[in-house]
Amino acid sequence: MSDFEEELIASLPEFLAHALELEVESRERYRDMAACMELHHNPEAAELFNEMARYSELHVREVLLRAEGVELPAMAPWGFKWTCGESPEVRQAEAAHYLMSRRQALELALCHETRARDFYLGVAMRSESAEVRALAQEMAGEEQVHVDLLTRWIAGADHGVPQEDLDPPNVVA
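RE: above sequence
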């Protein structure tokens, strides 16, 4: 949990703003990765990223329901209390590669889901608000379900042989 600010998330509106940003960014990044995989004829990875985008969409809807009647603070991108510049669930999206195997896509998604879980656990451990701690713990549990699902999928995934790039980019050394 060292990747996150030590500054406390003190209120429910502040926590919901963070959770909404995390889940919206997650949904959008998974959608982008799925589109990229589809463009490069990698249907297995595209399918996985679309599935993860659907899970993130469910979380977006859940956060919006919880935020009904709550005035969320307007926050600049640099005002969020995570140190990686982006929300924890999308930090390593640049690791996606159009030739990645389903297993590699699963491992990348596992990394994102684990970071989201750890963010919520960190809030649950450090917030001074009992309401924030309880909700963060609940959301960490939901992310743990994704971690467990991905872990099972990885265990059953074919290691396969990496695809050969039949049309590599022109690179001048």
